[in-house]
Amino acid sequence: MAYQTEPTFTHGTPAKTGILLINLGTPDEPTAQAVRPYLKEFLSDPRVVEIPKAIWWFILNGIILNVRPKKSAAKYATIWTKEGSPLRVHTEKQATLLQGYLGERTKAPFAVDYAMRYGNPSIPSALRKLREQNCQRILVVPMYPQYAASSTATAFDIVFDELRHSLNDRNDWMHALTDLVMDNLHGWLAEPDAAALEQSRLRALAMGAKN
Fold first, then answer.
1. In angstroms, what CA-CA distances link 98 with 8, 44, 95, 111?
2. What's the pLDDT at 178?
3. What is the pLDDT of residues 138-153, one digit of tens each?
């Protein structure tokens, strides 16, 4: 399995908190050529279409992707602005405004960026960009009014997959997961020694050791 390499780190660089706004997505241009890969990515997501893959593949590639891109592109063209896709333009403005708003109210170092679940900028590219700015914690904010598997859940699928592949090996991944669990459990355990013991046990399990 391939893993992403760590971004270049300069000692003395302050750790930041990253904030990633995630929206649904948009084609790069209102043309059939640009809409087709966008539709393919969107409609190939099993969170969006739950028809068995073998059946859906023939419907999607044999019919929909040969008919729908031109029709959808014409509709996109009616709402396209000089700045580009309305969804992308407004999401980018929201990220910029949030950066300014928080900048006026906190001295803690942070960075705000945005990504699209389908299309560009992609979630993996945005996460790598934040990590290159030494963001040690990243707050992911799906821009949907309510939870749904086809919106919020699929966005987190990509986030988790990218973070998993960005770690160097299985032990790093398990250690990070163990630390996350213990950060939440620590407050529930009355004795600090008990929390430390439990953390050691989970680390040993993560490495395949038997206690």
1. 27, 32, 5, 10
2. 64
3. 999 999 988 999 999 9
CA dist 123 and 128 (Å) reads 9
Give the pLDDT confidence of 26-43 residue by residue, as tens digits: 999 999 999 999 999 999
The structure's pTM equals 0.75
> Which residues of the chain carry a pLDDT beneath 70?
1-13, 167-211
Question: What is the b/e burial string over 161-182, where b = at least 16 CB atoms within 10 angstroms of the residue's CB?
Answer: ebbbebbeeeeebbbeebeeeb
For residue 17, list its beta bridge partners.
110, 137
